[in-house]
Amino acid sequence: QVHLVESGGGSVQAGGSLRLSCAASTYTYNNYCLGWFRQAPGKEREGVANIDSNGNTRYADSVKGRFTISKDNAKTTLYLQMNSLKPEDTAMYYCAAGIWSCTLVAGDFGVWGQGTQVTVSS
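The chain above was modelled as a monomer; its predicted structure follows.
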């Protein structure tokens, strides 16, 4: 099975930057779709970005131009570089993996990390 562990969350000022990491343990890591999702208290979980086995990426409209998803296949690690952060980016951020699909829909992903908190102050 795949295990995912996020790190890199914290508190930053609006306009600042933060990089999240997701370390994965799997024998088939390179064949997975990998994604980042976020969820604020009382809100639904929403897709932020994903990257497929070929390196193709997809972003939610709300983060285009500000966030960049990438991966290091040799280290089986997923990253999310977040720039120009806004207070509305405040949420718990989760990484996830799926083998049969590559979407921004949470229900399409079967393996999840524990989450890392991102707080952006004005």
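The chain has no helices and eleven strands.
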